[in-house]
Amino acid sequence: MSTTAIRIEDVNKIYKASDGREVQALTHIDLNVKKSEFISIIGPSGCGKSTLLRILANLDTPSSGSITWEKSADNIGFVFQDATLLPWKTVYQNAKFPLEVKKIETKENMENLDKLLELAGLKGFEKAYPRELSGGMRQRVAIVRALSYNPDVLLMDEPFGALDALTRDKMGIELLRIWTETKKTILFVTHSISEAAFLSDRVIVMSPRPGKIDEIIDINLPHPRTVEMKETIEFVNYVKKLREVLG
Length: 247
Ligand SMILES: Nc1ncnc2c1ncn2[C@@H]1O[C@H](COP(=O)(O)OP(=O)(O)OP(=O)(O)O)[C@@H](O)[C@H]1O
Ligand SMILES: [Mg+2]
Fold this sequence. Notes:
Blueprint: E1 4-16, E2 22-34, E3 38-42, H1 49-56, E4 64-69, E5 76-79, H2 91-95, H3 97-101, H4 107-119, H5 135-147, E6 153-157, H6 165-182, E7 185-189, H7 193-199, E8 202-207, E9 212-218, H8 233-246
Parallel strand pairs: 3-7, 3-8, 5-6, 6-7
Antiparallel strand pairs: 1-2, 1-4, 8-9
The structure holds adenosine-5'-triphosphate and magnesium ion (MG).
Magnesium ion binds next to helix 1.
């Protein structure tokens, strides 16, 4: 059941800044990500969360250490910290762009895309351009785009950062539903302690630069998670514990 999906071994990352200074962004990162696991990563700004996701997505290379994928590493969905939509394409064209590039515009995938747009509250905006959307709507298009081709692994860098509290809760529940249905492996960066506790199987707490893993907290709350759970003692205790570890 709990087979490893990604093995991260002693990963270090040193950036050379434009003024020649060296920035140690990640130190000795060791982590086994299990298949179908939901992991959140929290930690102060600049501790290397985005760097770690970028390295996993092969958009950057570690200075040392290794990443081993159980299956191929090419089936990754990435939701960036900024929505990064193509401004000359409409909502619909942006959302289906990966299907187009991968040449998998099958009937099933197109129907799934419609469903995702509906779930994300984007019905009626298919023909709008990114500049005509709010920041939260743009981010929702980016999430739909990442889910459009049904990747095994989803790397999400503060995907809900630009959303209002209510939409954020709704998207969280929706993401959990998709995760349960499709057994995806998810790595989710957030600044919200309560969001991390609510969504995850495990929460990785990182310390300030040079970014390393401070502690890993197992969240043993039952599934499916419901909004009401946020008022239970167990949940409140997890939030408290995470806040303590974060300092
Ligand atoms: N391309 C780069 N060149 C030089 N330094 C970089 C580069 N990218 C990131 N860094 C540095 O690496 C460190 C980690 O950055 P990273 O973006 O991973 O942090 P983060 O944890 O995602 O922060 P935030 O919560 O603000 O998004 C920072 O000190 C940053 O200045
Ligand atoms: Mg970041």
